[in-house]
Description:
This protein is an all-alpha fold. The protein contains three helices and no strands.
Amino acid sequence: MSPNLQKTWPFVPIFSEIDSVLLPLAESVSDTLMAVGAEAMSQSNKVKEWVKVAAKSDSNMKGLHAQLAERYKHQSKKTPPTA
């Protein structure tokens, strides 16, 4: 066994235990971020639809609708990341 391995080998069980504690926490944080992003997107879609409907009867909303449509158009061109 190399000298470096002999020095670090005793820490393997410690880091393994730390990893087993932190991994579920990291997964929970990731799941929470995913849920928050999905909820934000859902709410954004609702607002976009409300503005779209309002723009049909309120000329003041047409500019906002155009801005949102442009923003969503750019967004839809992006390809989703692969996992």
